[in-house]
Request: fold
Amino acid sequence: MRDTARTAFIAALVIGSVIVGALALWKLKLVISLLFLAVIIAAAMRPSVEALARRRIPRGVGVLLHYAVLAGAIALLLWFVVPTARDQLSAAVPTSSAELKTATHNSTGIKHDVLVAVQKRINRLPSAGKIVHPAVQIGVRAFEVLIAIFFVFASAAYWIFERDRAVTLVTSVLPRPRRKVVRDTWDLIDAKLGAYVRGQGLLVTLVATVLSLAFWLIGLPFWLLVGVFAGLVELIPVVGPLAAGGVAVAVGLTHSLGLGVAAGVVVLTVRLLEDYIVIPRVLGEAVGLSPLLVLISVSATAILFGGFAVLLAIPLAAVVATLVNVIVLNKDPAAEEVPTVLFAAKDVEG
Reply:
C-alpha cells in the first residue's frame, strides 16, 4: 500500500507539473512567439555576420550594420512612398465636406457607393471629447508595439552571440552518440529558417516593385499604395495574395469595370510567374513543405495563437517537419540539402 501510494503521488505530481508548465507556456505565448521571431531573424542574419567575422569585422559591428541597413531601407521606402502616396490621395480623395458632396454628386457606380459610405462615416464621427480616451489607448498600444520590436531585435542580436553556447549546453547533457545528430539538426533548422526569411524579403521587394509598375502602366488609382500593400502581404501565407488581388480589383472597379478586370489579370499573372518561376528559383526547397501542409499550419496557427502568429506559421511548421524527419523517420540531418538563398552552403553552415 505504501509503494502504491508513493507511485500514485509521484504520478500525480508529474501530471500536475506538466499541466502547470503547459498553462504557464500558454500564458507566455506572446513572449515565446516574439522569441521565436527573434531566432528567425538571427538565423537570417547569421551567415552574413559570420562572413563579416571571417573578414575581421566583429560580430557586434556586423549586427549593427545589418540593423543600419534595415533602418535605411525602411527610411528610403518611406521617403519614396509617402510623398507619392500623399499626392495620389489628395488628387483622388476629397479633402473637405464640400468637395466630398460634389464628388458624390458627380460619381456613379461603385465609386459613388464608396464616397457615400465615406460621407456617412464622416457624419458619424464622434466629438473631440469622445476621441481622447481611444487616442490614449492607441498611444499605449503603439508604445507596447515599439517595446516588442526592440525586444525582438535585441533578442536576435543576443542569440547570434549565444547560439553556439546554447547548442553546446544542450548537447553536453545528451549521450555522446546523439550529440552530433542534435547539432546537425539544429544547424539544418537554422539554415532553413534563415533561407526562408531571406527569400521572403526578396519576394516582398520583387512583388511590390513589379506590381507597382504594372498598376502604374494600366492607370490604376493609388497604384503605389496598392503595389506596396501587395508586396507586404506576401508575408502572410495563403491569405496575403488573395487580399492583394481583392484590393487591386476593388480599386480598379471604382474607376471602371475594364480597369478592375485588368488589375485582376495583372495580379494573377504576377502570382503565376511567382509560383512557377520565382519561388522555385529564389526559395527552392527552403522549408520543404507541401501546399497542403502550409494551408493546415496557417489555419491551425491562426486558430490557436491569433492573427499575429500567422507570420510564424511556415517557420514553425518547418521546424516541426524537420524534427519529424529526424526523430520519427530517422533521416540524417547532415545528409539533408542545405537551402541556399543569397549565401552559399558553406556560408549558411557557418
